[in-house]
What does this fold into?
Amino acid sequence: MSQAKGRAVIIANFLKDDADRLSRDISSFLCERGWDAAIYSSPGKLHEPIDLAGVDLVISLGGDGTVLYAARRAAADAVPVFPVNLGSLGFIAWVRKNEWKQRLDDCLSGKLHLSERIMLDIEVVREGIRIARFQALNDGVVSGNGTAKIVSLSMNVSGAPLGTYRSDGVIVSTPTGSTAYSLAAGGPILDPDMDAMIFNPICPFTLSNRPLVVPGNECLEAYVEHKQRESIILTVDGQESFPLTEGDRVCFRRDVRRARLYCAARGSFYQVLRAKLNWSGGPDA
It folds into this structure.
């Protein structure tokens, strides 16, 4: 995107330090350049719908969770997201708060790489009827919602059975989400521009169960077996949840829409990996 003026929405998590001040600073910066800027905030409750029709740019101001919310909302209108990090780790919220001005200037002048990331289309089917539908940029997790944790889920890939898993649950992740919960559960790291999905059982009862990477055009399906010891829940991007019952099917597919996120350069993902995970490449790595 390279244009003299346009419409921007700043989505800020006001529970973060400096979010109020920075949102006003960014708004003034944009207005000085002929842009219309509006500030949207919902402190700690980033679930409300937001109208982005006719908007040219979304600026996410918070942590990775704020980016996830903004990207899901912006995908419907194909609006690109510029992520400013006010959190701690920040894999996808990569713009530091002391450099936002230069990076945003690069964004407005078309100097930043625009990455198009696959998203998940997640459906819950009960007795043959779809009862819920979600969109995820990071992941969808089917897990126990109690103390014993262990659940029993049958998995298949586009109709081909993988088996029945006794575990704390399963994660289905996009490449963007490969550095989130899936990574903490021992999953692989994928380049975020890949067209693939990760199936990752959480603490499986059988040690031979391992993560699986499948092409993005496959359909992963989790069937909630009967006689569960725990209540089961679907969690989407760590922000939305839906209670499941025995016999439910949760279908994970690649969404037709993509999240559009600004990045510093094509190789910046690996620089962030090295810095955030403290890789040295030496014997102390």
